[in-house]
Amino acid sequence: MSQSAPQPVIILTRPQMGENIGAAARAMLNFGLTEMRIVDPRDGWPNPRAVAMASGAAGKVLDRARVYPTLAEAMEGITYAFATTARGRELTKPVFSPATASAHARQEIAGGGRVAFIFGPERAGLENDDIARANAILTVPVNPDFPSLNLGQAVLLMGYEWSHERLPAQPMPTNRRPAGEVPADRIEIEKLADHYEAKLDEAGYFFPEQKAPPMKLNLRNLWSRMALTRADVQVLHGILRQLTRR
């Protein structure tokens, strides 16, 4: 995912703990989001606890974060904003789920707009004065008996919903998989087949002689049908070496 592509702004309103700011930054970068705005953080800014929690996201998210004294000022340049809240409010506004909010945000951005997702402080969430400044409400459909989400969790959920259409089809791209999970290539399979054929030939497996060619062909076809990883190939080579050791 390109981090330079148009993306929503994440606004943290009056966050109380540096660890939660760091967790939010980490969640953002998981899904290619890098623009964070922080409104009146309780413990000031910069916050070493936020940096420690953010890990590798500190340089790409926290170091670029902008701090504002009020939410109104943090809305600079924003054309459409979603206020995240789990509670019913008396304010009349459109209500979106993470999926529908993401779809609407993409439309706004495609039209040249700037979108923000606003998250409230950990203890009580956004106040009515905060929500009044947003265009719409974003609510996550969770267990009504326990609707509370940690700030980092809420940002992670929204980041995933925003980015999932752009995520790799596989959980981990091939070039980043551990060697044991990478599929063996055809040369590796060919060498494995040669190894087994040679050892089986030495053991007199291909008998009688006139049946040897079709037996070898069937065996090679068997290897080609197996979905082996590089680690699998190494294991099978090792087994054969051990069995034929003299």
Describe this protein's structure.
With 246 residues, the chain is of the alpha/beta class. The chain has helices spanning 18-30, 48-54, 71-74, 98-110, 128-131, 151-163, 186-202, 212-225, 230-243; strands spanning 9-13, 36-39, 66-68, 80-84, 95-96, 115-119, 136-138. The protein has a 7-stranded parallel sheet with strand order 3-2-1-6-4-7-5. Helix 7 (186-202) packs antiparallel against helix 8. The protein is elongated. 30% of the residues are buried.
Comma- or semicolon-separated keywords:
alpha/beta; 40% helix; 246 residues; 11% strand
Give the structure's gist in a few sentences.
The chain is α/β, with parallel strands linked by helices.
- Rg over C-alpha atoms, rounded to the nearest angstrom: 28 Å
Determine the oligomeric state from the structure.
single chain
| Structural shape | elongated
| Biggest pleated sheet | 7 strands, parallel
Give the amount of beta strand, in percent: 5-15%
Q: Report helical residue fraction.
A: 40-55%
Number of strands: 7
Q: Taking all residues together, what is the mean pLDDT?
A: 88
Going by helix content, strand content and strand pairing, the class is alpha/beta
Which residues sit in consecutive blocks of at least 5 with pLDDT less than 50?
none
Task: Write out the strand line-up for the largest beta sheet, numbering strands in chain order.
Answer: 3-2-1-6-4-7-5
> What's the N-to-C terminus distance?
54 Å
Helix-strand string? EHEHEHEEHEHEHHHH
Number of helices: 9
What layout of secondary structure does this protein have?
Elements: E1 9-13, H1 18-30, E2 36-39, H2 48-54, E3 66-68, H3 71-74, E4 80-84, E5 95-96, H4 98-110, E6 115-119, H5 128-131, E7 136-138, H6 151-163, H7 186-202, H8 212-225, H9 230-243
Parallel strand pairs: 1-2, 1-6, 2-3, 4-6, 4-7, 5-7
Helix pairs in contact: 1-2, 1-6, 4-6, 7-8, 7-9
